[in-house]
Amino acid sequence: MFFKIIVVFGILGQISCHTWIEQLSLVDQDGQPTGDPGFIRGYVPRIAPNFIDDDNTNLLPQAPSLTFQDSDWMCKPTQVKGNQTNGAVLNAQQGDRVLLRYLENGHITQPSIPPNKPSSGQVFVYATTQPQDNDKFTAIHGQWTPDGTGGDQRGFLLNTTSFDDGRCFQFDPTRHSEIATNRNDVFGPGPSITETPNRWCGTMISLDDEFGNPFPAGTVLSLYWVWDWPTYVPGNAGTSPTILEQTYTSCMDVAIV
Protein backbone atom coordinates (compact mmCIF):
# COMPACT_ATOMS: atom_id res chain seq x y z
CA MET A 1 0.00 0.00 0.00
CA PHE A 2 1.33 3.42 -0.90
CA PHE A 3 2.43 5.72 1.88
CA LYS A 4 0.42 8.87 1.30
CA ILE A 5 1.04 12.37 2.57
CA ILE A 6 -0.19 15.76 1.53
CA VAL A 7 2.15 18.66 0.87
CA VAL A 8 1.72 22.29 0.09
CA PHE A 9 2.88 23.91 -3.09
CA GLY A 10 6.08 25.35 -1.70
CA ILE A 11 7.40 21.97 -0.59
CA LEU A 12 7.37 20.76 -4.17
CA GLY A 13 10.19 23.15 -4.99
CA GLN A 14 10.28 24.29 -8.57
CA ILE A 15 6.93 22.93 -9.71
CA SER A 16 5.02 25.61 -11.60
CA CYS A 17 1.31 24.87 -11.54
CA HIS A 18 -1.26 27.38 -12.54
CA THR A 19 -4.36 25.93 -14.12
CA TRP A 20 -7.94 27.04 -13.67
CA ILE A 21 -11.07 27.18 -15.80
CA GLU A 22 -10.51 30.01 -18.27
CA GLN A 23 -13.93 29.85 -19.91
CA LEU A 24 -17.15 27.87 -19.98
CA SER A 25 -18.45 27.43 -23.52
CA LEU A 26 -21.45 25.91 -25.19
CA VAL A 27 -20.49 23.50 -27.96
CA ASP A 28 -21.96 22.91 -31.40
CA GLN A 29 -22.74 19.54 -32.98
CA ASP A 30 -19.06 19.15 -33.86
CA GLY A 31 -17.94 19.76 -30.30
CA GLN A 32 -16.53 23.22 -31.07
CA PRO A 33 -17.02 26.17 -28.70
CA THR A 34 -19.80 28.51 -29.74
CA GLY A 35 -21.59 31.59 -28.43
CA ASP A 36 -20.63 33.90 -25.60
CA PRO A 37 -18.49 32.22 -22.93
CA GLY A 38 -19.07 32.22 -19.21
CA PHE A 39 -16.48 32.58 -16.48
CA ILE A 40 -15.64 31.25 -13.04
CA ARG A 41 -16.69 33.14 -9.96
CA GLY A 42 -14.29 35.91 -9.00
CA TYR A 43 -12.58 35.69 -12.38
CA VAL A 44 -9.55 37.92 -12.96
CA PRO A 45 -8.53 38.24 -16.64
CA ARG A 46 -4.90 37.76 -17.54
CA ILE A 47 -4.78 41.30 -18.97
CA ALA A 48 -5.78 42.84 -15.62
CA PRO A 49 -3.20 45.19 -14.06
CA ASN A 50 -0.77 43.36 -11.77
CA PHE A 51 -2.34 40.01 -12.64
CA ILE A 52 -0.77 36.95 -11.02
CA ASP A 53 -1.76 33.29 -11.31
CA ASP A 54 -2.82 33.21 -7.67
CA ASP A 55 -5.71 35.52 -8.56
CA ASN A 56 -7.52 32.51 -10.04
CA THR A 57 -5.62 29.51 -8.68
CA ASN A 58 -6.92 27.57 -5.69
CA LEU A 59 -4.44 25.03 -4.30
CA LEU A 60 -5.34 22.55 -1.58
CA PRO A 61 -4.34 21.88 1.12
CA GLN A 62 -3.92 25.50 2.10
CA ALA A 63 -0.60 26.62 3.51
CA PRO A 64 0.73 26.18 6.12
CA SER A 65 -1.15 22.91 6.60
CA LEU A 66 0.38 19.74 5.18
CA THR A 67 -2.91 17.84 5.09
CA PHE A 68 -6.44 18.47 3.96
CA GLN A 69 -8.52 19.97 6.74
CA ASP A 70 -12.26 19.55 7.20
CA SER A 71 -12.36 23.35 7.34
CA ASP A 72 -10.88 23.73 3.82
CA TRP A 73 -13.31 25.41 1.47
CA MET A 74 -14.07 23.82 -1.86
CA CYS A 75 -13.93 27.26 -3.47
CA LYS A 76 -11.30 29.96 -3.30
CA PRO A 77 -12.56 32.76 -1.00
CA THR A 78 -12.98 35.02 -4.05
CA GLN A 79 -15.07 32.32 -5.73
CA VAL A 80 -17.97 32.18 -3.31
CA LYS A 81 -21.50 31.91 -4.68
CA GLY A 82 -22.65 34.94 -6.68
CA ASN A 83 -19.29 36.69 -6.89
CA GLN A 84 -19.16 37.35 -10.64
CA THR A 85 -16.49 40.02 -11.02
CA ASN A 86 -15.04 40.29 -14.54
CA GLY A 87 -17.20 37.83 -16.42
CA ALA A 88 -20.79 36.65 -16.52
CA VAL A 89 -22.12 33.18 -15.79
CA LEU A 90 -22.72 30.98 -18.80
CA ASN A 91 -26.28 31.00 -20.11
CA ALA A 92 -27.39 27.64 -21.48
CA GLN A 93 -30.56 25.86 -22.54
CA GLN A 94 -31.93 22.49 -21.53
CA GLY A 95 -29.90 19.67 -23.01
CA ASP A 96 -26.90 21.81 -23.96
CA ARG A 97 -23.42 20.44 -23.62
CA VAL A 98 -20.80 22.61 -21.94
CA LEU A 99 -17.02 22.62 -22.28
CA LEU A 100 -15.01 23.70 -19.24
CA ARG A 101 -11.85 25.07 -20.85
CA TYR A 102 -8.36 25.43 -19.40
CA LEU A 103 -4.69 25.71 -20.39
CA GLU A 104 -2.48 22.67 -19.96
CA ASN A 105 0.54 24.87 -19.16
CA GLY A 106 3.04 22.15 -20.05
CA HIS A 107 1.59 19.62 -17.61
CA ILE A 108 0.80 17.40 -20.61
CA THR A 109 3.33 18.40 -23.26
CA GLN A 110 6.29 18.43 -20.85
CA PRO A 111 5.57 15.23 -18.90
CA SER A 112 9.00 15.08 -17.23
CA ILE A 113 8.64 18.55 -15.71
CA PRO A 114 8.35 18.27 -12.79
CA PRO A 115 9.66 14.73 -12.30
CA ASN A 116 7.78 11.80 -10.79
CA LYS A 117 4.39 12.67 -12.24
CA PRO A 118 2.90 9.43 -13.62
CA SER A 119 0.31 11.39 -15.60
CA SER A 120 -1.23 14.82 -15.95
CA GLY A 121 -3.85 13.83 -13.42
CA GLN A 122 -7.59 13.37 -13.16
CA VAL A 123 -10.46 15.85 -13.27
CA PHE A 124 -13.70 15.60 -11.29
CA VAL A 125 -16.74 17.81 -11.83
CA TYR A 126 -19.33 18.05 -9.06
CA ALA A 127 -22.75 19.67 -9.52
CA THR A 128 -25.32 21.09 -7.13
CA THR A 129 -28.38 23.30 -7.16
CA GLN A 130 -27.92 23.90 -3.42
CA PRO A 131 -24.49 25.54 -3.14
CA GLN A 132 -23.30 26.98 0.14
CA ASP A 133 -20.69 29.69 0.61
CA ASN A 134 -18.93 27.44 3.12
CA ASP A 135 -18.96 24.23 1.04
CA LYS A 136 -16.09 22.11 2.32
CA PHE A 137 -13.66 20.23 0.11
CA THR A 138 -13.49 17.04 2.18
CA ALA A 139 -17.28 16.88 2.44
CA ILE A 140 -17.61 16.87 -1.36
CA HIS A 141 -14.54 15.44 -3.09
CA GLY A 142 -14.69 11.68 -2.92
CA GLN A 143 -18.02 11.91 -1.09
CA TRP A 144 -20.60 13.04 -3.63
CA THR A 145 -21.40 10.17 -5.99
CA PRO A 146 -22.83 9.92 -9.53
CA ASP A 147 -26.21 8.80 -8.18
CA GLY A 148 -26.40 11.63 -5.64
CA THR A 149 -26.53 9.36 -2.60
CA GLY A 150 -23.07 10.17 -1.25
CA GLY A 151 -22.09 12.68 1.40
CA ASP A 152 -24.78 15.13 2.42
CA GLN A 153 -26.66 14.39 -0.83
CA ARG A 154 -26.87 18.07 -1.85
CA GLY A 155 -24.99 17.35 -5.08
CA PHE A 156 -23.47 14.67 -7.24
CA LEU A 157 -20.42 13.72 -9.29
CA LEU A 158 -21.21 14.86 -12.83
CA ASN A 159 -18.06 13.70 -14.62
CA THR A 160 -14.66 12.12 -14.08
CA THR A 161 -12.06 12.27 -16.83
CA SER A 162 -8.38 12.73 -17.60
CA PHE A 163 -6.85 16.20 -17.41
CA ASP A 164 -5.50 15.47 -20.89
CA ASP A 165 -8.31 15.57 -23.45
CA GLY A 166 -6.03 14.11 -26.13
CA ARG A 167 -5.96 17.24 -28.29
CA CYS A 168 -4.76 20.20 -26.25
CA PHE A 169 -1.24 21.59 -26.16
CA GLN A 170 0.92 24.53 -25.22
CA PHE A 171 2.62 25.73 -28.39
CA ASP A 172 6.33 24.94 -28.55
CA PRO A 173 8.13 27.03 -31.20
CA THR A 174 11.30 24.97 -30.70
CA ARG A 175 9.42 21.75 -31.55
CA HIS A 176 11.33 20.03 -28.74
CA SER A 177 8.10 18.71 -27.25
CA GLU A 178 7.02 15.73 -29.32
CA ILE A 179 3.52 15.85 -27.86
CA ALA A 180 3.03 19.55 -28.60
CA THR A 181 4.50 19.24 -32.08
CA ASN A 182 2.36 16.25 -33.04
CA ARG A 183 -0.83 17.83 -31.75
CA ASN A 184 -0.09 21.12 -33.44
CA ASP A 185 0.47 19.31 -36.73
CA VAL A 186 -2.66 17.16 -36.39
CA PHE A 187 -5.18 19.46 -34.69
CA GLY A 188 -3.72 22.94 -35.11
CA PRO A 189 -4.22 25.81 -32.67
CA GLY A 190 -7.52 26.42 -30.95
CA PRO A 191 -10.40 27.96 -32.88
CA SER A 192 -10.43 31.28 -31.01
CA ILE A 193 -7.98 34.19 -31.10
CA THR A 194 -7.85 34.00 -27.31
CA GLU A 195 -6.14 30.61 -27.27
CA THR A 196 -3.96 30.80 -30.41
CA PRO A 197 -1.21 29.58 -30.84
CA ASN A 198 -2.14 27.09 -28.12
CA ARG A 199 -5.07 24.70 -28.04
CA TRP A 200 -6.93 24.73 -24.76
CA CYS A 201 -8.02 21.57 -22.98
CA GLY A 202 -11.63 20.92 -22.13
CA THR A 203 -13.81 18.91 -19.77
CA MET A 204 -17.15 18.16 -21.45
CA ILE A 205 -20.31 17.94 -19.37
CA SER A 206 -24.02 17.55 -20.03
CA LEU A 207 -26.52 19.61 -18.07
CA ASP A 208 -28.35 16.56 -16.72
CA ASP A 209 -29.15 15.62 -13.15
CA GLU A 210 -28.10 12.42 -11.39
CA PHE A 211 -30.97 10.57 -13.06
CA GLY A 212 -29.99 11.67 -16.55
CA ASN A 213 -32.80 14.20 -16.86
CA PRO A 214 -32.09 17.71 -18.20
CA PHE A 215 -32.21 20.44 -15.58
CA PRO A 216 -35.28 22.63 -16.16
CA ALA A 217 -35.19 26.24 -17.31
CA GLY A 218 -34.68 28.60 -14.39
CA THR A 219 -32.09 26.37 -12.73
CA VAL A 220 -28.77 27.83 -11.63
CA LEU A 221 -26.34 24.94 -11.53
CA SER A 222 -23.15 25.31 -9.51
CA LEU A 223 -20.12 23.37 -10.71
CA TYR A 224 -16.98 22.47 -8.78
CA TRP A 225 -14.05 21.49 -11.02
CA VAL A 226 -11.36 19.54 -9.16
CA TRP A 227 -7.97 18.58 -10.62
CA ASP A 228 -5.91 15.97 -8.77
CA TRP A 229 -2.24 15.86 -9.86
CA PRO A 230 -0.16 13.77 -7.42
CA THR A 231 3.60 13.29 -7.38
CA TYR A 232 5.04 9.82 -6.76
CA VAL A 233 8.41 10.12 -5.03
CA PRO A 234 10.47 6.91 -5.31
CA GLY A 235 11.37 5.27 -2.03
CA ASN A 236 14.34 3.16 -1.08
CA ALA A 237 14.76 -0.26 -2.66
CA GLY A 238 11.87 -2.50 -1.71
CA THR A 239 9.66 0.33 -0.49
CA SER A 240 6.64 1.95 -2.07
CA PRO A 241 6.76 5.51 -3.35
CA THR A 242 5.48 8.40 -1.30
CA ILE A 243 2.44 10.09 -2.81
CA LEU A 244 2.45 13.86 -2.58
CA GLU A 245 -1.00 15.20 -3.35
CA GLN A 246 -1.72 18.43 -5.20
CA THR A 247 -5.29 19.48 -5.87
CA TYR A 248 -6.69 22.54 -7.61
CA THR A 249 -10.29 23.74 -7.81
CA SER A 250 -12.40 26.20 -9.79
CA CYS A 251 -15.98 27.13 -8.90
CA MET A 252 -18.57 28.41 -11.36
CA ASP A 253 -22.24 28.56 -12.24
CA VAL A 254 -24.42 27.90 -15.29
CA ALA A 255 -27.81 29.56 -15.70
CA ILE A 256 -30.28 27.42 -17.62
CA VAL A 257 -32.63 29.81 -19.38
Automatic annotation (TrEMBL):
<keyword id="KW-0732">Signal</keyword>
<dbReference type="Pfam" id="PF24320">
    <property type="entry name" value="DUF7492"/>
</dbReference>
<feature type="domain" description="DUF7492">
    <location>
        <begin position="16"/>
        <end position="257"/>
    </location>
</feature>
<dbReference type="InterPro" id="IPR055915">
    <property type="entry name" value="DUF7492"/>
</dbReference>
<protein>
    <recommendedName>
        <fullName>DUF7492 domain-containing protein</fullName>
    </recommendedName>
</protein>
<feature type="signal peptide">
    <location>
        <begin position="1"/>
        <end position="17"/>
    </location>
</feature>
